[in-house]
Structure of Trimeric intracellular cation channel family protein:
Amino acid sequence: MTGMVYWLDMAGVIVFALSGVILACRSNMDPFGMLVLAAVTGIGGGTLRDLVLGIRPVFWVSDPSYLWVILATVGVSLVGFHYIHRLSRGFLPIADAFGLALFTVIGTHKALLLGTSGEVAVLMGMMTGVAGGMIRDMLAQRVPMVLREEIYATAAMAGGIVYVTLQALNAPLNLSIGMALALTLGLRLAAIHWHLALPVFAWVTLPPKEADPAAPLSTPAKAKERVRMIRRERKTKR
């Protein structure tokens, strides 16, 4: 990888590791729990990407600097624990958005270097950006961000498509990276701020015949109203 891409990768590890530390603090975990969440978030997506692409050894085995960066992030966080604990709840999704954008570009770039098709490169970029956060959230017993309402994986996919397209047009590497980062980060931050989401398709349910044969069927309008109520309840809880 070029020097710029390498340092972007390191920046993504730091940001994602910090998001793991923040979630560990809010989940009342000990320092080892903080280290585990920081590690799986920082290198989990890239590890899965390398395994799928058949890269041996995976990136952090051949370059242990990634592990030292994670250790340093956790160490600094322990020293400044009280400051991290006071961060608003909006900081975690914002930090996660920056990590998503960085890792999406890194994953897409690495897949293209290995000669994969554009479609596979986009999927690898999305996997790199999403997988670590999913593992982090599941270990903390939270619904993964990628499965919530706001646009998440879609932002990563859009950024990957832009990167692949610009590289296919022989655009400069700096331009490709900058445009892909801006689009992924912009979409994710916009989704957080305005609660942007893809359409929800609700099932139309049928009432049991034994209970009331004459009961009216659920209509699409009622199903949509139910979805809106669930969204309002989730926003209220936040």
Observations:
- The two ends are 40 Å apart (CA to CA).
- The chain has two domains: 3-194, 201-230.
- Residues 209-215 have pLDDT under 50 and may be disordered.
- DSSP finds ten helices and no strands in the chain.
